[in-house]
Design a protein that fits this description.
568 residues, alpha+beta, Immunoglobulin-like, 2 domains, seven-stranded mixed sheet, five-stranded antiparallel sheet, 13 helices, 23% strand, signal
């Protein structure tokens, strides 16, 4: 006989704990009240459709178990349609059979109805009136379409209902399912227009929380008025619609605006038709195989650049400095470098001379280069701060000179400013208009067209300065001079006067082209190997400087001065 082993004390304690826990859970569950499962056993929905298109919806919820503390229903006030449009509904006259008044809260696209139900002793009815749920299918037919069950916070075991119409239904459908499903299913039962069911009746099985039952009824328009409200829903694609009307408006605006810009430019910005080109200068023969540069029209290099591109550029002022030096009003002195790798600097020294024949811009330029007391000249490295207060005056004189000489009717800078301001204002207006069109309409493409036209006006405005007939003739003559400067032999200068004659051509070659070949001609005119630091009256180099250094010296001088002149 097998002896029984005594039970260990640890096992006894564990068993007691388990038994005690089970008893506690059992007693607690017995002590708690019955828990509401949040389900309505039946929802009966009665809809009354008025001749004015308003729908009165009465929903009666029956709970076989203890009802929840409250029931909420979210009624959609907006429903998307194909494209960028949506139907808009208005809900009013919310009522309930519960003791306390319902709480109604509208939040943009939905109306939330909250009904306290914890003290309800019987069925709970929620009612409301909706407008906007009748739609025109054609001239003679109205469709009543509404989700009679939607947005309930409780699930439903069974749905029944009926519709009272002021006429005979031509067609009736009852659909149900989740609210976001594309193709809802057919209700369990629906009938209308029969002997047994002259008015629409419907029934459906269990519906989950938030699910819908949708009724669609077709009825003659004379029986029920159309109340649909359709609003445009903003989308980026809709704002820039390519439908025929918005697209046509944009293309039409571009075409018409382009024609207007073209007409404006032809009328205000087109140069007068040139006649006979004005010969600005010529290489006049002085002997067999020799010629000298002779100016036929008193136009200085700075004015040449302004007539050609209608602007006062740094190169125009730099060429004017060299021209003043060649004519004896300045001397450019290249200074020896303080260290091997130091930057090259130059001293601009004013020379005495008759300044009565100088143009206004030339006098303004010389005034800007007047050295401080006790100094011989002005360093190029300091020319920026020195000339900053005078450069606007130099430019203004240049613009005045081209007008007083009859080459322009109006100052090119003033003309550009007027049209540029008009272009900026037009751009601001176009941007604002585009914002409004994009936000409120489908004509965003029209706004883009307006912006493009405003930008076009800004561009065309820079081309508006128009030359007079004299200016057009001068421009044609300058084109001829440019060709001559780039092709005329540089060796056909009078013997013994090479440096002077070639130097006179150089400022014009700087602004019109061909500079390097004329500088090389000056270098080739040097026939000895001695230092040439002072051979040029207008350009002096440091000790041991030769004319063959001139190309690099002038290249550095022009780039340095052009940069420093307009430095801020």
């Amino acid at each position: 006989m097998t002896a029984l082993h005594p039970t260990s004390p640890g096992r006894v304690r564990t068993a007691r704990v388990v038994v005690a826990t089970l008893l506690a859970v059992l007693l607690t569950s017995l002590a708690l009240p019955a828990h509401a499962d949040g389900r309505a056993s039946l929802v009966d929905i009665q809809v009354s459709v008025g001749r004015d298109g308003a729908l009165r919806v009465e929903q009666t919820l029956t709970f076989t178990e203890t009802p929840p503390a409250e029931v909420t229903q979210r009624v959609a006030l907006r429903q998307n349609v194909l494209g960028d449009r949506e139907h808009v509904y208005s809900v009013s006259d919310v009522t309930t059979s519960a003791g306390a008044a319902p709480q109604v809260e509208e939040s943009g696209d939905a109306l939330t109805i909250t009904v306290p139900t914890q003290d309800a002793s019987g069925p709970v009815t929620i009612g409301y009136t909706v407008r906007g749920a009748t739609f025109a299918l054609d001239e003679d037919t109205t469709q009543v379409r509404w989700r009679v069950l939607q947005g309930l916070s409780v699930s439903v075991d069974e749905v029944t209902g009926g519709v009272n119409l002021p006429g005979i239904a031509e067609d009736f459908q009852c659909l149900s399912g989740p609210p976001d499903v594309a193709n809802p299913g057919v209700c369990r039962f629906s009938a209308a227009g029969t002997e047994d069911y002259p008015q629409p009746q419907f029934a459906d099985g269990a519906r989950g929380e938030g699910e819908v039952v949708l009724l669609q009824i077709t009825i003659p328009t004379q029986a029920v008025a159309v109340t649909e409200q359709v609003e445009r829903r903003w989308t980026l694609g809709g704002a820039f619609s390519a439908d025929p009307l918005p697209l046509g408006a944009a293309l039409g605006a571009l075409l018409l605006g382009g024609l207007v810009l073209f007409a404006l430019h032809r009328r205000a910005g087109r140069d007068a038709s040139p006649g006979t080109p004005t010969r600005v200068a010529e290489f006049r023969p002085t002997g067999p195989g020799q010629s000298e540069f002779s100016l036929l029209v008193p136009v200085r290099p700075g004015q040449v650049g302004t007539v050609v591109d209608e602007r006062v550029d740094p190169i125009d002022v730099t060429a004017s400095l060299i021209d003043l030096a060649v004519r004896g009003h300045l001397r450019i002195v290249e200074l020896p470098r303080a260290e091997e790798f130091a930057r090259t600097d130059w001293l601009l020294v004013r020379r005495p001379g008759d300044e009565e024949q100088l143009a206004g811009f030339e006098r303004a330029l010389l005034t800007a280069l007047t050295p401080a007391e006790g100094r011989e000249g002005v360093l190029v490295s300091e020319i920026g701060p020195t000339i900053a207060a005078h450069i606007a005056d130099v430019q203004s004189h240049l613009y005045d000179d081209v007008v007083s000489s009859g080459w322009f009717d109006h100052r090119p800078d003033s003309t550009r400013n007027v049209w540029g301001t008009a272009g900026v204002l037009a751009l601001v207006v176009a941007v604002v208009a585009t914002g409004v069109l994009v936000a409120l309409t489908t004509f965003g493409l029209l706004g883009l067209a307006l912006v493009a036209l405003a930008l076009g006006l800004c561009f065309v405005g820079q081309e508006m300065p128009a030359r007079t007939p004299e200016g057009s003739n001068l421009l044609a003559g300058l084109s001829l001079l440019r060709s001559e400067l780039q092709t005329h032999p540089t060796t056909q200068v009078p013997a013994g006067r090479e440096l002077h004659e070639l130097s006179e051509v150089l400022p014009y070659a700087i602004v019109l082209g061909g500079r390097d070949r004329w500088i090389d001609a000056i270098v080739d005119a040097d026939e000895d190997g001695d230092a040439d630091s002072t051979d040029l009256s207008w350009y002096h180099g440091p000790d041991h400087w030769h004319l063959h250094h001139l190309p690099e010296s002038l290249k550095n001088f022009i780039s340095t001065v052009s940069g420093n002149l307009f430095a801020r």
